[in-house]
Write a structure and sequence with these properties.
Length: 200
């Protein structure tokens, strides 16, 4: 991962730890590094400073680490882990507070207050407007043990239909892809319903 503002030792330690312990279909080190890469890109597009980059990148690196304790409330657990480990990497108290705040901004319902939180949320689910949306969605389905079928397809449609981008950069880069994925999903749902009626 190039271009991040994270201490190299922290980057290695956190990535290695999550590679060993985040062994979920979707919420794993690949997702973490993917979100971090999107955060690096969007931060540059929005023109944030080096200190803001450090806080954003650190938040994205650690935002799923609480999943090792369980899915429920993992955002808060991720913030707690960040507060525990970051002093060992020379983060100041104010930096740690900011990182924890940004991580907590992903709690449902999301309501980002500043640019860092908006960048964080856009980076976290950047794949909704990308061609690899289908692969990522299948990983989520397997992780959640959801059944294939119309209910799952309608769930995905609701996710895409209700999604909003918080930064202009993400909107400009991904809106067209999001619409394309939504249209393709509508076609799949229509075909699924047609076949259901035919074989009923």
């Amino acid at each position: 991962m190039e271009g991040h503002r994270i201490d190299r030792r922290l980057m290695k330690d956190a990535a290695d730890f999550q590679k060993r312990h985040l062994i979920f279909e979707y919420h794993n080190v690949s997702h973490v590094l993917d979100a971090l890469g999107s955060g690096v890109m969007y931060g540059r597009m929005e023109g944030i400073g080096e200190q803001e980059e450090k806080l954003l990148h650190t938040s994205l690196l650690l935002h799923e680490i609480g999943m090792i304790y369980g899915r429920e409330g993992h955002e808060e657990m991720s913030a707690c882990v960040a507060a525990f480990v970051l002093p060992h990497y020379c983060y100041s108290e104010s930096e740690i507070r900011e990182v924890c705040r940004v991580i907590r901004s992903s709690q449902d319902p999301a309501n980002p207050g500043d640019l860092l939180e908006k960048l964080f949320l856009d980076a976290d689910i950047d794949n909704l407007g990308r061609p690899d949306f289908w692969i990522r969605a299948e990983s989520v389905r397997k992780e959640e043990h959801a059944k294939q079928g119309l209910d799952w397809l309608l769930h995905l449609k609701g996710l895409l239909s209700n999604h909003k981008y918080y930064t202009g950069s993400a909107g400009r880069l991904r809106s067209a892809g999001l619409k394309k994925n939504l249209h393709a999903l509508d076609d799949v749902i229509e075909e699924y319903q047609r076949l259901y009626v035919f074989y009923s």
